[in-house]
Specification:
The complex is a heterodimer of chains A (about 120) and B (about 240).
Chain A lengths: L1 H7 L10 H6 L2 H39 L3 H27 L21 H7 L1
Chain B lengths: L4 H20 L2 H4 L6 H11 L2 H36 L7 E8 L26 H17 L7 H18 L7 E10 L12 E3 L4 H10 L3 E10 L7 H9 L1
Antiparallel strand pairs in B: 1-4, 2-3, 2-4
Helix pairs in contact in B: 1-4
Classes of the chains: A mainly alpha (about 120), B alpha+beta (about 240).
Amino acid sequence: MTVAVHEIGPVSDTSHLTMEQRLSFTPEEAAAHQRSSKLFMVGWFTYIGLIWSLKLNMLYVYRRVVSVVWVSAYILPTMLLVGVTGTSIWLMFALACRPFHKLWQILPDPGSRYRPPFQQQASG
Amino acid sequence: MPQSPAFLLTVLILNLVTDVCIILIPIPIILPLKISWARKLGLLGMFCAGVFIMIAAILRVYFVMAVSTVSIYLTTKRVANTANSSSKPQQQPSGRVEKTLSPSWSARPPSSGPSSPVGSGQAPTSPQTLTRRTNTLTTRTSSAAARPPSSRAWASVQSRIRTTSASSTQTRPTRARRISLQPRKKLGLAGENRPRELTGVRTSRTWKAAVSSYRETWTFRVRVVRANTPKHGSLYDQLVALVG
C-alpha cells in the first residue's frame, strides 16, 4: 500500500479527470495515469485486507478476554459480520466494474454512473 | 474509476457498522466494574478510541468527494472563461458553412452480421451505417478500449473540413477560421456521456482522439465558421447561436 501511494502520488489516477484532461494526454501520460489507477485498485484490496484483519484480531482478543456470558455470545456473530462484510467489499471491488479493465480506462470516458451529480451536469 | 463514490461509500458504511459492533463489546464489561469513576472513564475512553477512527473515516470520504467536486467545478469554469475571452471583437464571422457528417467512416468492408435491431428510422441511415452499427453492437463490449483509433475516420473528417473551407475561402483570405465539431446522437445508440463540443481555430490531435473514441455512439457535425467581416455578434455568440 505504501509503495502504491508513492507511485500514485505524483501522477494522480484516472478518477476525477475532466474531458479536456482526458483528451489532452500524450500516450505516456495516459499510461502513467492508468498505472496509477491499477495501483490504486491494488491499494484498495490491501487496505481492506489490512483493516478487516485488524478488526478480526481485535475480536479474537475479545473472545479470549471476555468472561461475561451474554457478551461473549455476541462476539461470534460480530466476527461473522466482519468476515462477510470484508469479503463482500472485496467482491464489490472485483465485480462492480465489468469488464474490470474499464476501471482505468481513459478514453472513452468509462461512464458517469458512479460520479457525483455535479460532474454529470458539467460534462453533459 | 477507482475513486468512485460507490466504492468510497460502501467501504465507509461497512467500516462504520463493524466498528460500532466492535466498540460496543467492552462497554457492558467495563460499566459494572467496581472501580472509581475516573478510572472507569479512562477505560471507556481507551476502548472507545475507535470512535476517533470512525470520525477520521467519515472526514476522509467527505473530503475526497468534496475536493473532487470543487476541482471539477474550477476546471469547467476555467474552460468557459477561456472560451469567452478568446472571442475577439475584430474577428467576427460573416458566413458559415455547415456540413453534417454522416458516419460514413465504415471504410472496412461491411461484415456479415445480424440485421440491425435499432436501424429502422430517420435520416442518416445508409446501409453502410447500418452494418457499421451492427458491428458496433456486436463488438462494442470487447474491443472498445483495445481497438486502436481509426485514422481513416479522422482522415475523412479532415478532408471534409478541408474541402468545405477551401470552397468558402477562395474569395477572401481569412485570418482565423474556427471549426467546431458538434456531437450528435447516433440513432438508437445514445452514449452515456455526451462528448464535449470541440471548437478551435484548427484541428489537432486531441480532436482526433475525441472523434475516434466517440465514433461508436456519436456522430459529429462539422461547422466551419469563417472570421472575416464584423457584422453580427462576436464569434463566440455566433457559435453559441449556432449550437442553440
